[in-house]
Amino acid sequence: MDPYTPRTRPGARKKNITLSAKEYTKITGTIASVRRNRHFNDDIDEDLDGPVHTVRGSRRSSQEPSFIAETSFVRAPLNSRVGTTSFSPKNKGKGKEDLLDHLPLDVQEALILEDLLFVLMGIEGVHITYHPDYSPEDDDPLQGIRFAIASPLDPSIRDLAERVLPLATYYTAISAFVESRSHLEFGLVNHALCAAIRDMLKEYQTLLSQLEHAFNTSPLFTLQKLWFYVHPTVHTLSLIYKLVLELATMDDDDGSSISSASSDPEQAARDEALGLGGAKLKAVLSEITKSSTSAAIPVKGGEVLTAIYERMQGMSGDPTARKVYGTLMSAAGAPYVEMLREWATTGRLHDPYEELCVKESKFISKGILEVDYTDEYWERRYTLRDGSTLSSKQQHAGVPLPRTPGGRLPGGACIPPMLEGWKHKVLLSGKYLNVIRECGIEVQSIQPRRDQEQFSMDDEKLYKFVEDAYTHANRTLLRLLLQDQQLVPRLRSLKRYFFLSQASFLTHLLDLAHTELKKPAKSASIVKLQSLLDLSLSSEDASFREDVKVTMANTGLYEWLLKVISVSGIIGGEGGEGNHDTAATEEPKKDRDKDKDEKKALLAIDALALDYTVKFPLSLVISRKTILRYQLLFRFLLHLKHVEQSLASMWIEQKTTPWRQPVPNHPEFEQWRLRVTLLRTRMLSFIQQILAFVTFEVLEPNWRSLEVKLSKVTTVDQLLRDHVDFLDTCLKECMLTSAKLLRAYSRLIVTCSTFALYSSSFTKSANQALAAAEAGDGDQAMNKRWEFLKKFESNFNHWFQFHLDCVQYYASSENVTLLPLVVRLSGIKTL
């Protein structure tokens, strides 16, 4: 049984309230007989004075013609009272007080009953009027109209009447809320909530019409019976009233805080002092403030559902509250669930009023993937309105400010508590399907009979639906990437080209482009280098070789890495120990490095890099961020290969006669040749050990681990994370994320490459020494040769020892994978 309508008689209530002619005649006759029975008898007329007769007579004369003159009023009796009360003069003052004070109890009860039927519809009565503190013009209609009994009554009648009066306040406030929140800008959730409340108010109005019918037809209808019938409705409407009052208060508090902040006199004086006092400038600033604050966001979408859910949970011990709020939650959540269903099953986001937890940035298109290194399409095209991401350290920008009263995010940014744990799956399920749609593939729905699967916000089926949609979207996109787009063969080709797993093409390229790579980077021809790369790849059975392109970097590898680590600390994550101690000395060093870079142009061999072009949706996995990591590792390996090749050429050159011919009469020269050969051997051994460690103990094991993960991957985001983690691990274990290791290693590489550049100079010095030994005149330049060689030896020994100490420290504290490198480098130290 509904708490809104009493069952006064058995049988179903007729829905059609249109009166026939027979019923019309019967009702008018009944009303006339009731009014005759309630006229004053002769005894009462003798006790009452003249003014009372005048008042009652005028009231009768003002009411009776309304039933005769207008037939439509008879069909709706409450409407007749609207006209009557609005045009009849209100009796204020002592006359009216005396009227009710001296009347019998049944007459007082009848008059109060008649006024209560006015008031319960929000219409001011004769004896029950607006509260003295209430003003229809000034007070907020969402707070409801307050009524008060203006005349003294019998205490029992007054007590019962005052119990009923809050019902009028609830009804008027709820009606005002429904009227105000039905506008377009309040969104679909508010519209659905207002429709559900409107249905409840229809039952309330039906109850009032039945009560009025009982009042007009039954002489036995009393105030006690009225209270008996409306008592359940008082509690029901009080629950709705508290909800609408909370929703209305959120807007009011937020708006008042903004308006008070904008009218702050101190802020105005400060603006005036800063020259911001102009009228036009103030208008512009106010527009910016309005657009950037959450005051402009009404209470809608997820915020409304959160308010209903929190009230339902807070009053879960009250069956009526749980039923009422549960009904409102189901009705208000229906459009929210429909938007969520469409997003999760088709990848289309239809949210015209920004109520859903998912936000779309329409200005970001998939074309950005080709040029943007931040991959905005995947990360920022569709995001959660609350700014949260799967990584707790990151948060998207553009999140509105929380509301002042309770810290709740406004509008759609407030995610309903029942979806808080599922919000990332909701986002990703639609994201995955959207990628498939962008590829021109029609998305198959997981629910062919969707219309038969209806559920509400507080239904457990919602969670199963989100889980099923997430699983379906994952499988569909994974199948597209792994099978249709051949992701794994693509990654293997990246390993071949960037990690030099089959490096014969690189050796061929370095030989062909030897002269071109000696030029400055700005002078080298990229077109020529690209043709030479294509030529070197044509001799091999290389897949996807047409996607490999030659490019030139703007800065050196180690300078760029050190700059990134020192500025952001993201790559290295180094603490303050290494960076803060040398902060004061690094600034002049940076200035000197800039001067050196300006004087000495970057060579093409140092700027050479490869690029890899892929199309959407593979660009989500092989993105610009991941290609940047591949390029860093490639340039690192390329430098090692180039220096190794240079030192090997030096070894070949040192097998010629000037280095092999014995000179017994010049032992100092033989000692010098031995030291040069030993230093070259140590440098070559160092480069080869680093290269072997990087390829066999870092890249290859991590690649095998990635292949295992790819064979077991179940979600697309897990695939993306595994790929990025693989590259980050390789960068870390290759010592490219530590400022100390990178600085020591770069100095060692520069020393080795510079030493290899002086190969012909050493050979020339050896020829000169041989000629001097054969002439027997004595070698005057031997001291200069020793001095020149000792500079290389001291420099290499110093940075080698520093690098070895750093590797030992990091191997024992942070990176255990560096332990094999410690063993390898310790063997070089003993040479």
Question: What does the model show?
Answer:
- With 831 residues, this protein is mostly helical.
- Among the domains are: 103-252, no CATH class; 489-567 and 601-830, Up-down Bundle (Four Helix Bundle (Hemerythrin (Met), subunit A)).
- Helices cover 66% and strands 3% of the residues.
- It has 34 helices and six strands.
- The protein has a two-stranded antiparallel sheet. A two-stranded antiparallel ribbon has the order 3-4. A two-stranded antiparallel ribbon has the order 5-6.
- The radius of gyration is 44 Å and the shape is rod-shaped.
- It starts with 20 loop residues before the first helix and ends with a helix.
Break the fold down into its secondary structure elements and pairings.
Blueprint: H1 21-37, H2 42-47, H3 50-69, H4 71-75, H5 77-87, H6 94-101, H7 105-119, E1 128-130, E2 147-149, H8 155-180, H9 187-217, H10 223-262, H11 265-273, H12 279-292, H13 302-314, H14 319-346, E3 358-360, H15 376-380, E4 382-384, H16 423-438, H17 460-484, H18 487-498, H19 504-512, H20 514-517, H21 526-538, E5 548-552, H22 557-567, H23 576-581, H24 583-599, H25 604-607, E6 608-612, H26 618-621, H27 624-653, H28 657-660, H29 667-712, H30 716-733, H31 739-757, H32 759-775, H33 782-813, H34 819-829
Antiparallel strand pairs: 1-2, 3-4, 5-6
Domain Gamma tubulin complex component protein N-terminal: 113-483
Subcellular location: Cytoplasm, Cytoskeleton, Microtubule organizing center
Protein name: Spindle pole body component
